[in-house]
Design goal:
With about 110 residues, the chain is mainly β. The protein has no helices and 11 strands. The strands form 3 sheets. It has a 6-stranded antiparallel beta sheet, with no helix packed on it. It is globular. The N and C termini lie close together (about 10 Å).
C-alpha cells in the first residue's frame, strides 16, 4: 500500500511533542502513541496499549536505545518496544502494531497499519 492511498489523520502540531517523548492520540478509535526522537526528531507511531497490562500507557514510557534499536520501555512492566516495527524485545508475542506517521504543514499525521 502506498502512502498516498492511506487514510491520514491529523493528531497535533509537531511542536506539541517534546524531543524524546511521546503523546497519545485517538485515531479511528485506536489509541496510538506518537514519539519524537533524537536530534533529527524522527517520528514513530505504535499502538499505545501495553498488551500485557491492557492499559493505554506506552506513550508515557521512557524512550531510549538498545543496541541499534530505538525503543520505548513500558512504564508498567518495563518491556521494550521497537519504535520502528512495534516488536516487544522481551516477549515477541506481546508486540504491537507500528503505524505510518509524517509531518505536513507543521501537523503530525498518522495512518493506521
Amino acid at each position: 500500500m502506498t502512502t498516498k492511498s492511506l487514510s491520514w489523520t491529523a493528531v497535533c502540531a509537531a511542536s506539541d511533542i517534546l524531543p524524546d517523548t511521546g503523546v497519545c492520540a485517538l485515531v479511528e478509535g485506536v489509541h496510538v502513541a506518537i514519539f519524537r526522537v533524537g536530534r533529527e526528531q524522527a517520528l514513530y507511531a505504535i499502538d499505545n496499549v501495553d498488551p500485557k497490562a491492557g492499559a493505554s500507557v506506552l506513550s508515557r514510557g521512557l524512550v531510549g536505545s538498545l543496541g541499534d534499536r530505538i525503543v520505548v520501555a513500558s512504564p508498567l512492566y518495563k518491556n521494550h518496544f521497537d519504535l520502528r516495527n512495534g516488536e516487544c524485545l522481551e516477549a515477541p508475542e506481546h508486540s504491537v502494531r507500528a503505524h505510518a506517521v509524517r509531518v505536513q504543514e507543521g501537523r503530525v499525521l498518522v495512518a493506521l497499519a
